[in-house]
Every structure is written in structure tokens, then in C-alpha cells.
């Protein structure tokens, strides 16, 4: 039998995905637009919905937020490390009074956009401030915020932030049916936090490992659980005070995670 040598099989080149010039930070701009659109639709729709429908929508969002938090929390490889980050972050957050400061930001925004004077010394948080606070935390704590902002800053990849924008847009619609225009004001927090992460992404890429990002996402998941409990009126978790835990998580991984 005469065997002929088999030559190399030539494959036709696979066409590359079309690349479009993406401005760094475009993902955050899309996210802001989605939240504004969803909030506007929610406010317009909310006045037409009976109270029981709005309560049910809020409870559904609370349950889903708890689910997301549990899913992300399970990313941790060391529960004690996550606990340490949470406790240290909570202590620092209370020393810095982050929850109170974030509330005051919401109050200032409310004062600028609302002509109705607010009762001085009122201990009851207004619906506007509650909407701003809850929406800011929900939209800015999750792993999509961290990973998406870093990818956007490094190479202009907005896939994750585009996905986050779609989710946030629908969530903003649902939140705004009950919490009103305060949800739209959360775009200030989105711009500052995601914009800051995107701007510093090049530096973060040299420092953060996959393990660090996983632990940051896991801690963010715990904060989401706290927000979900708040939405369900189960516990008034001061989730904003725990935001420094997102910084402590990679630090503890660098010190003790190996």
C-alpha cells in the first residue's frame, strides 16, 4: 500500500470580532442612562399601581437581592478571612460614619431637586433619601460593579457593565415605583464609584489577583444580603458602613490568603 504523507490541514482564518473604538468609561455612561430611564418609567408607572402591587414588587426585589448575595458570598475560599474583612470594614465604616454621610448626600440632592421644605429635625428618613441610599448600594456593591469597571478601564470591554446596565435599568424601574426619584439620584454614586474604579483600573490590574477579586465579590455578596433584608423590612442593616470591607478583603488575602 502506497501511503502518501498527509499535509497540514489549512483552516480558513476565523474572522475577528469587529472592534469599535470604545471610550474608557462608556460602560458607566450606559449604566447611568439605563438607571435614569428605568427610574423615570418607574415613577410614571408607580402612581398608577395599587399599594399592594408596589409592596409585592419590593418584596420580590428583596428576595432576588438576597439570592444574588448568597450566590456571590459562596465564592469565598476562607470564611474567616471574609468575616475579618467584614468586621474590620464595619468598624472603619462606623468611624467614618459612611452610612450617615451617604444619607446626607441624599438629603442634599433632595434639597436641590425638591421645592418642598423638609421638616427640620425629623428622625424619619424621607422616601427620597431611602430610595437614593438603597439604590446606590444595590447598584454599586455587586461583583459586576468591580469586575465590569476594571475591564472597562483596562481595555474598554463593556460587556459586563452592559449586562449590569440592563439589570439595573429593570431594578430601577421596580424600585422607583415605590421609592420615587431618589432612585434616579443614585447615578451620582454610580458615576463616582464606577468612574473611580475605571480610572484606577490599570493600577488595580497590577495588584489584584483572581483570589482577591473573588473575596471582594464574596464580601459584596454579604452586603447584598444585608440590603435584601432591608428591602424585606426584616432588619435595618447599615450596609453602607460595611463598604470598607471591600478594601480589606484583598488586603487580608495578600497577608494571610496564601
Write up what this structure looks like.
- This protein has one domain (26-116, 125-256).
- 71% of the residues lie in helices and 0% in strands.
- It contains 12 helices and no strands.
Spell the H/E element sequence.
HHHHHHHHHHHH
Report the sheet with the most strands, covering strand number, pairing sense and barrel closure. none
Domain unit count:
1
Helix content: over 70%
Shape designation: globular
So how many helices? 12
- How much is the average pLDDT? 79
Radius of gyration: 22 Å
Question: What would the keywords be for this entry?
Answer:
0% strand, disordered N terminus, 12 helices, single chain, mainly alpha, 258 residues
Amino acid at each position: 500500500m502506497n501511503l502518501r504523507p498527509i499535509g497540514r490541514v489549512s483552516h480558513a482564518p476565523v474572522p475577528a470580532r469587529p472592534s469599535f473604538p470604545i471610550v474608557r468609561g462608556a460602560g458607566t455612561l450606559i449604566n447611568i442612562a439605563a438607571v435614569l430611564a428605568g427610574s423615570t418609567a418607574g415613577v410614571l408607572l408607580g402612581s398608577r399601581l395599587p399599594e399592594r402591587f408596589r409592596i409585592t414588587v419590593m418584596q420580590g426585589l428583596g428576595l432576588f437581592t438576597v439570592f444574588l448575595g448568597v450566590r456571590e458570598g459562596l465564592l469565598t475560599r476562607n470564611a474567616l478571612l471574609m468575616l475579618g474583612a467584614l468586621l474590620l470594614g464595619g468598624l472603619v465604616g462606623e468611624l467614618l460614619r459612611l452610612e450617615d454621610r451617604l444619607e446626607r448626600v441624599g438629603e442634599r440632592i433632595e434639597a436641590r431637586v425638591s421645592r418642598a421644605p423638609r421638616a427640620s429635625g425629623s428622625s424619619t428618613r424621607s422616601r427620597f433619601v431611602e430610595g437614593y441610599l438603597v439604590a446606590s448600594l444595590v447598584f454599586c456593591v455587586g461583583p459586576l460593579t468591580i469586575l465590569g469597571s476594571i475591564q472597562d478601564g483596562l481595555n474598554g470591554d463593556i460587556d459586563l457593565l452592559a449586562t449590569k446596565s440592563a439589570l439595573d435599568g429593570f431594578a430601577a424601574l421596580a424600585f422607583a415605583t415605590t421609592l420615587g426619584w431618589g432612585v434616579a439620584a443614585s447615578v451620582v454614586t454610580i458615576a463616582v464609584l464606577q468612574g473611580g474604579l475605571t480610572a484606577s483600573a490599570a493600577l488595580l490590574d497590577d495588584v489584584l489577583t483572581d483570589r482577591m477579586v473573588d473575596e471582594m465579590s464574596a464580601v459584596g455578596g454579604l452586603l447584598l444580603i444585608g440590603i435584601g433584608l432591608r428591602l424585606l423590612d426584616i432588619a435595618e442593616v447599615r450596609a453602607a458602613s460595611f463598604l470598607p470591607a471591600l478594601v480589606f478583603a484583598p488586603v487580608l488575602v495578600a497577608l494571610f490568603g496564601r
